User: Fold this.
Amino acid sequence: MTFLFYLFLIINATAFILIGYDKSLAKNQKRRIPERTLLLFVLIGGTIGSGLAMQIFRHKTAKRSYLLKFWGIVILQIATGCYWFYFKK
Assistant:
């Protein structure tokens, strides 16, 4: 269980840093991190880190297509968690 905690901590920290770094790249008009990469970190458990970074850095909060994918992944994660908790006893 401790391993999973640290794994998710690392994934969320990485997702947070990636969103912040992508914002920096956007400000400097440099080549950006692909959305697919950012969303992959959300999918593998970086939801909290990505969500916090989006709010703190004000990044990706106005891009509707990204937000739909982000919230779709969040809903999928919640549904999976509910299924696991309630039906896999």
In short: The two ends are 18 Å apart (CA to CA). The CA atoms of residues 15 and 50 lie 5 Å apart. The mean pLDDT is 95. The chain has three helices and no strands.
